Amino acid sequence: MMWMQAFQNAVGLVSRWSQQALPRRCMWRLVFALVLGFGASTAQYVEAESANRSHQEATATFLSGVVTAKSARILQINNKNYGLHNEIRVQDEEGRIRSLNDLSRGSQVQFHVKREKIDQLILILAR
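Predicted structure:
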């Protein structure tokens, strides 16, 4: 891991500087700054991994498909009809709120079925 090597390099620098005639106060400030920087970068890494894992877990029960037809209360995905829940939540893969009007024939989607109706739908945007 890259951060581990950077930390080891920093420890080596501190070790060399401690053998030189640097004032103790300056050395401790440097050690504090290195530990603080290491902690902040580790926290960012953990937060990013946690967000990625929670998104994967949240979409694990979702089905994927292509919209093949659409009407007011029925959405056909992969040639199979699904009713729409009264309070369906539609968003894109970046979490922005969308509406059923954003769907068209050929749209890539991920969806969650609850009580035989789609209650959540994620629109996969073309890139």
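Summary: The chain is about 40% helix and 30% strand.
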